[in-house]
Amino acid sequence: MPAGRAEASRQMIDVSIIIPTYNRLWALPKAVDSCFSNDCAVEVIVVDDGSTDGTWDWLQGRKDVVSIRRTNWGRIGRLLREWRLPKESIFAFLIPTTG
Fold first, then answer.
1. For the chain, what is the total number of helices (H) and then of strands (E)?
2. pTM of the prediction?
């Protein structure tokens, strides 16, 4: 585990990143890994909208990610409902896309 990941849970978070997802296991690992930095403490929150492609199982293996499972909220619903979750006031949404 690169420096910064485990430390983020023990120190003040600099930025929180929320990733809404539904059946994006093919893109999620790269998206999650791209969030972590050695320059700041990052909290990554992934909101899974009931994926059926193994996304939830993959997330359970990631101890450096806050995983939330909801069903049938849709992308906008996930964004609107989860925006209050970050521990810090600085946060961003990351939406994995093709490519």
1. 4, 4
2. 0.71
What is the arrangement of strands in the sheet containing 65-69, beginning at the earlier edge strand? Answer: 65-69, 42-48, 15-21, 91-93
Listed in sequence order, the residues at least 6 apart from 78 whose beta carbon sits closer than 8 Å to its beta carbon are: 20, 47, 49, 70
List pLDDT tens digits, range 15-64. 888 888 889 999 999 999 999 877 888 889 898 889 999 999 999 999 99
Q: CA-CA distance, 54 to 50, in Å (whole number)?
A: 10
User: Residues with Cβ < 8 Å from 15, sequence gap 6 or more?
Assistant: 40, 41, 42, 43, 88, 90, 91, 92
